[in-house]
Amino acid sequence: MALFTDTIREQADFGPGDAEWLHLLVGDWQLVADLAFADLALWFPDPSEGYTALAHVRPSTTHTVFHEDIVGERIRGDLRPLVDRAWTTQSIERSHETSFNSEMALRVEAVPFVRNGRTLAVVTSHMDLSSSRMPSRLELTYRQCAYDLLRMGTLGLWPDFASPTGSRRGAPRVGDGLIRLDAEGIVQYASPNGVSAFRRLGGFDSLEGRSLAELTSNLLKDRRLVDETLPLVVTGRMPWRSEIESRGVSLSLRAIPLRDERERFGALVLCRDVSELRRREMELVTKDATIREIHHRVKNNLQTVAALLRMQSRRMKSEEGRQGLEQAMRRVATIALVHETLSQGLAQNVDFDELIDRQFRLSAEVATGNQHVATEREGEFGGLPSDLATPLALVINELVTNAVEHGLEDRSGTVWLIARRGVDDSGEETLQVTVADDGVGMPEQQNRHEGLGLQIVRTLVTSELGGSIHWGPRAGGGTEVTITLRPGHS
């Protein structure tokens, strides 16, 4: 795809939408390869007056004729005249002679893709003829459908910009089931898998000769839940996707209108039973909702514990005991804040900047006595895995509290929280977190700082965060504590 994009950008003299149209073709031409039972290659002129293969797709309905990737290769001498004729005449050209390689006989067709009167590229179709047998009705119908789509390409009618480009799981493929309609929406042909899919919905044993719209309408039990695009899909009027559900079975449908220069003469409808996929998606949604509810209840329980600790601290006559309970209350409240954030989203990563902004200011305010303490934050934490969020929030809470109570003591000052993302020598992503103050600086003996709070910090940094911690003097006065961790190791 990189070669495709670069070549188009550098060499093509395209008008508005031309490059996007070819991208849409390459994104959807697996459909044609499967219908044609053939390999497809996209050719574009190169500066040497030849052609280069910009893309290649193999069929999933039969074996490939190219076992090696041909993207980036120059066109063969025997194939170039055919491609030249297609480019010039702007019509489908078929090789007059059967071409042979070392293993098989091939039938080759060259199809120019024309938009606004200009040939943009040529697609060659390579089908193996070595297995000589009478083709089945399914094969004949599939090949006719492939021809109709390629013919529409020469008229600039396919691919259609209104076609779905979303990546929702369960998009129907040729092998899942194909139904061909006439201009009135009557089923001309339904593949065995297509018939089976509608039978699981409660349909009839045979679809041919019936109106697909009427059949579908008879299967609907609750019309309030019908996708509004369904009528236009089952009649083949619009190139959209839709779904129908009946008797616990979900069917994904995709319509591709067939047109010529004058009018729409039919449509293809691809169908796929996506019941199991939708059931699993619903299970995931249910599990996500359950996890969010668990986080919400844990947050409520922790807030209750914090309130109980606050009430108990007010009854304490010992100042030391009261401070200990208040510190425990703040730690519980920090954990509750993380669970509150997790209860509001389904992502595995937490937007830590949003979480820590509130917690940083709150930690400094709670630890502040009579002095004025300013807080400043620099850098961005970005998204962090949820299993890192709780210990890191606790570590920052303890370090900020320590900076206010012991670094600034009773003085006014500033506490900084700085986050820096980077890459180490081995190419792994790192996160460096610094908590700094402009207070009295570090004491001469480090062990004077080893209270319960700093013991908690050391334990969380080494065991939960898998990082390292360093205390040092801050340039300009005060203390700074730096934590280095690797978010990818969580």
From TrEMBL:
Gene3D superfamilies according to UniProt: GAF domain (3.30.450.280), Histidine kinase-like ATPase, C-terminal domain (3.30.565.10), PAS domain (3.30.450.20)
Gene Ontology biological process terms in this record: phosphorelay signal transduction system
SMART domains for this protein: HATPase_c (SM00387)
InterPro entries, alphabetized: H_kinase_PdtaS_GAF_sf, HATPase_C_sf, HATPase_dom, His_kinase_dom, PAS-like_dom_sf, PAS_4, PdtaS_GAF, Sig_transdc_His_kin-like_C
The UniProt record lists the keyword Transmembrane: no
Coiled coil: none
Catalysis performed (reactions): ATP + protein L-histidine = ADP + protein N-phospho-L-histidine
The keyword ATP-binding is assigned to this record: yes
Domain Histidine kinase: 293-489
UniProt-listed Enzyme Commission number(s): 2.7.13.3
Entry-linked Pfam families: GAF_PdtaS, HATPase_c, HisKA_2, PAS_4
Keywords: ATP-binding, Kinase, Nucleotide-binding, Phosphoprotein, Transferase, Two-component regulatory system
Superkingdom of origin organism: Bacteria
An example Gene Ontology molecular-function term: protein histidine kinase activity
Protein name: histidine kinase
Species the sequence originates in: Sinomonas humi
